[in-house]
Structure formats: C-alpha cells, structure tokens
Design a protein that fits this description.
By secondary structure, the protein is an alpha+beta fold. It has a single domain, classed as Small protein B (Small Protein B, Chain: A, Beta Barrel), CATH 2.40.280. The protein is built from 5 helices and 7 strands; from the N terminus they run βαβαββαβαββα. The longest helix is centred in the last third of the chain and has 23 residues. The radius of gyration is 18 Å and the shape is globular.
Length: 153
C-alpha cells in the first residue's frame, strides 16, 4: 500500500474522528498521472448529493499535456469525481451535511494503491482552533528535541 499523494496540512488543521476508504471513478490518463505522483489534494473536499458522494477540487494534471484532444485540459483537471462507498457509509457522511453534527467536515487525506486499484482515504473531521494548533506545534517541537537528545548520545 504505497501512498501516491497526501494532504499533509489536514492533520494540522483538523482533528480526525472517523476514517473511511473509498474508491474513485477515474479515467485512464488520470490513473497514470496519479501513479506518477502528480496531483494535489490541497483544497479538496467531499460533498454528499442525494445518495452519492463526490470529491471536489482534486487537481490531477494531464499525464501528457501536449497530447490532449480538444485543447482545454485545465477544465477537466479539477472536475468533480464520484466516490465509491457503501450505502451505510454514505448515509453516515450525509448526516454531517444535514447539520446534526455541527462543525464537522469531510476531508480527503491520501490517495494510495491497494492492489491494482486506487483508493482515497477520507476522514470525518472537526476543525482545530488556534490554541489547538499551538499545542500541536509545541508537542512536535518537544518530540523533535527529545529525538535530537537521543541521537546525540
């Protein structure tokens, strides 16, 4: 299970509550581009419309930019992509949008290989406040100092 692209800022900006694994509907050139490590989850989010989940703002650049039919490849690079989830998972995620769970959002974390298929890890998350982010920075700095002390010995 090799991670192809990841959203590194998500763990800093959000507190993770529940993890889900979803398949993504992609075209062949998009799969090749993702397997080459190109793509960005920055600013991507998941919405639930009806009984389907959609991934918005996932940027996948063309695999071979000079070989695009039709000319305009920019419009297709961040098109909405359907997520493949089970009905109970979709109903759980849909409850976030109805307002019953205030302050929760659905954030994509990473795209990775699972066998021959590409999977997307999404998380039900709550946004961190400023003091939570400061606490995360402080904890990271102390762990780094401890590791530095152990490596010097």
């Amino acid at each position: 299970m090799a991670t192809l692209i990841s959203n590194r800022k998500a763990s800093f900006n959000y507190e993770f509550l529940e993890h889900f694994e979803a398949g993504i509907e992609l075209g062949g050139a998009e799969v090749k581009s993702l397997r080459a490590g190109r793509g960005s989850l920055d600013g991507a989010y998941v919405i639930v419309r009806g009984s389907q989940a959609w991934l918005e703002k996932l940027d996948i650049p063309p695999y071979q930019p000079g070989n695009i039919a039709g000319g305009n490849s920019e419009a297709a690079s961040d098109r909405p992509r359907k997520l493949l989830l089970t009905r109970p998972e979709i109903s759980r995620l849909a409850s976030v949008g109805t307002g019953s769970a205030k302050g929760l959002t659905i954030v994509p974390i990473s795209v990775y290989n699972k066998g021959r298929k590409l999977k997307l890890e999404i998380v039900l998350a709550r946004g961190k406040k400023k003091f939570d982010k400061r606490e995360t920075i402080k904890r990271r700095d102390t762990e780094r100092a401890i590791r530095r002390e152990y490596s010097d010995r």
